[in-house]
Amino acid sequence: EPAIRSTLTFSTVKTGLFKRRVIQVARRFGSLKKWADFSNVSLQKLISSFEGTPIYEEGLKEVFTKDLDADGLVMVLGRLRRGDVRLQVVKTGGNPTPVARVGIERVSMKTDLIPPEKMRTVLVESAKARLLNETGNFVCTACWDYMEMIRIKDLPDRPKCPRCGSSAIGLLKVEEEKAVGLLEKKGEHLAKNEEKMCSYAKQTAALIERYGKAATVALSARRVSTADIAGVLEKEPSVSDHFYELVLEAERKSLSKRFK
Ligand SMILES: [Zn+2]
Fold it and tell me: In angstroms, what is the span from residue 115 Cα to ligand 1's centroid?
């Protein structure tokens, strides 16, 4: 039975049905504003961006409970194995049997696709939702006396240190406990990994000081260097659709570099 379920999961994630469910879940989570239709290729990119998130898991769960009948399948296969039922092939000359047709029609009703022109909107909306929902570890690089985990969307336009008032707030992508040493030592006499963290905090602080919240949104992108983020912000310093497109492009570029 676990083998059946894992095979089912493996093939399910490739289906339009699953993709559609993920989009629906993402919409419900507030991650996508509009539901439109899109070509399968770009849709795949969008779905991959949700991989490893609760949205992805929830989409899978929904397909299993609403679209597929996994329990029924396990039962039928069990009965086949025990010999309770027998497999009989019906020759129809390539036409679906009346029962099969009902199934095919019901599935195709659920898998209507989205036109490519709406794809841009969908990609921007999903990037927006993803980045704004990221949580960053913010540290003050002026007094090293302030550290707080904050969701990007909850930040003010111009983040400031509540202790010293400085706007040299850096963004670390590590848990608070990993940055405790850096703060305790106030950025001095650091171990090698702390040194690295410190320089990253200062680089990001420079961007946040200059561009405010927009910098924190861009810095929440996946695996993009601060230099590339700086490039995005230089081209588009305000959080617009174009801004999100530039961030997505930077993510794509860094991803393709990694696989060269
Ligand atoms: Zn401070």
Answer: 49
